[in-house]
Amino acid sequence: MNRVKAGRKKAEGGARSLIPCIVFLISAACVILVISYTGATIATKKSSAQPGGKNPRGGGESADVMEEGGAEGEEGGEMVFGKVVGAAPFLPDFDLSRPVEHGPKGRRLSKEEQEYVSAEAEYQMRLARRNELTGGKRPEPPFPRWKPGKIKEVFLTPTYPCKRAERLGGTGTDGEGGKWVCNIRKLRAGGRRPIVYSIGSAGETSFEQAVRARLGTKAFTFDPFLDDQQAAAIRAKHILRYIPIGLGAGKQLSALRRGAPGKRFATLAQLMGKLNHSHVDVLKIDCERCEERLMEDLLNAFGKENPPADQILVEIHQIRHVARTTQVLFPLEDMGYRLFNAEANPRCSSCYELSFVHESFLKPKSMFPDAAAAGGDAGGAGDAAGDPAADTAEAAADAAADAVAAAAADSAAEDAAGDGGSGEGTGDGSQ
Questions:
Q1: Which of these, 414, 421, 38, 22, lies nearest to 258 by C-alpha position?
Q2: For residue 407, what is the enclosing H or E element?
Q3: How much is the pLDDT for 379?
Q4: Which of 85, 87, 161, 277 is an S-S bond match for 272, by CB 3.0 to 4.6 Å?
Q5: Which segment of 144-148, 199-203, 379-383 scores lowest on mean pLDDT?
Q6: Which domains are present in the chain?
């Protein structure tokens, strides 16, 4: 009996001595798990911040809205920061190698300011990545014969991360006809109604419908190639202001008129002058291979200090050629535009939809009080139903568009009757 009791006591003592060892092993395992998880999280964040890393907001986004989401987004969301390569003259007082919450004088930055500083840092990293791929030089004639994959990687990878991009329009399961617009909330700041030009229609008006619904305004739609039935059909929708004039570069207007008798063409500056607009908020261009000459024409006509629009949405064709791609990209970059979205056209293997935003539109007024305000024209004050100011602005815009459209129609009729002269005028109906 005594032996049994002694054995039990000995066993109990041995078990008690094992308890500290078991506790130690469990604690060590927990520590190892925590360290592994932390390391994996840090590595993931670092890889996402690299210039060549996969950016879920870069382009070809499947969702219809690219925006900081959830409750976390309300507090500023997760920012992507990285050390800027090279000089950043527009942000000289910020150390962008770490998250920025305070300005150079200790003032806490607003959510908009934090997003701006973060986006500028990422923009610099993406430019540095592109410079690595090109050796820091722009391709010049004779252009290299690059494969389409390299052209896409070098020139069609978005350089600016717009955190609030939204797709407007699009038809069918592939979304053909839709365009990406950056920061609709800012476009509508103060209840204003943005000025939107839509160049080229072919009777497809899903973009204009979305503009009416999301921006609260009617787009000015320019297309000289619609027949009377098509023109009447889109006018009957009361969602746009249709003007039968096409957009062309200054040097090609006469050739355009000779190639399309009875059709009216004008430069962007001429169109804006006729409608009394000094600035456009969104300029959509889809005129089937006219874009190459147009961009250089915009640079020559408006210069680097006077961009015609806050955002330019354009489809380019024949991306297999470096020359044709850069003829669109480089003039816009020289004017201060940044590519924030690029996606392939599902119905055209060599076509890409590009969306650009001007750097002046991105700057918070609190950080750049001397920067030009977004949108040079009122665009229609107020937004409430029955607001007299809004109604007056809408009526004035409708009347201006109708007057320009009527003048173009009269001029086309004169040409058809043989009274249009040599056709060597401005191309917009005035001689």
A1: 421
A2: helix 388-416
A3: 53
A4: 277
A5: 379-383
A6: 79-137 (no CATH), 149-416 (3.40.50.150)
How far, rounded to the nearest angstrom, does the alpha carbon of residue 369 sit from its chain's CA centroid? 23
- Region 166-192 average pLDDT: 84
Q: Among 309, 362, 366, 351, which residue's Cα sits nearest to residue 332?
A: 309
pTM for this prediction: 0.73
At 307-365, the pLDDT tens digits run 999 999 998 887 777 877 888 899 999 999 999 999 888 887 778 899 999 999 999 88
What pLDDT, on a 0 to 100 scale, did the predictor assign at position 287? Answer: 80
User: What is the spatial distance between Cα 150 and Cα 274, in angstroms, rounded to a whole number?
Assistant: 42
What pLDDT score was predicted for residue 220? 97
What is the bridge-based pairing of β-strands 245-247 and 264-266? parallel
125 vs 13: CA distance, rounded Å: 64
In whole angstroms, what is the distance from residue 381 CA to residue 191 CA? Answer: 7
Peptide bond into 139 cis (omega under 30): no
Packed helices 322-334 and 148-155: angle between N→C axes, nearest 10 degrees: 10
Task: List, for residues 239-261, the tens digit of each pLDDT value.
Answer: 999 999 999 887 777 777 777 77
Distance between CA atoms of residues 299 and 5, nearest Å: 100
Amino acid at 271: L
- 190 DSSP assignment: G
Q: Is residue 260 within 8 Å of 224, Cβ to Cβ?
A: yes
49 membership: H or E segment, kind and range? helix 2-49
Take residue 9 and report the two structure tokens written for it: 């006591």
Whether the CB-CB separation of 292 and 328 falls below 8 Å is answered with: yes
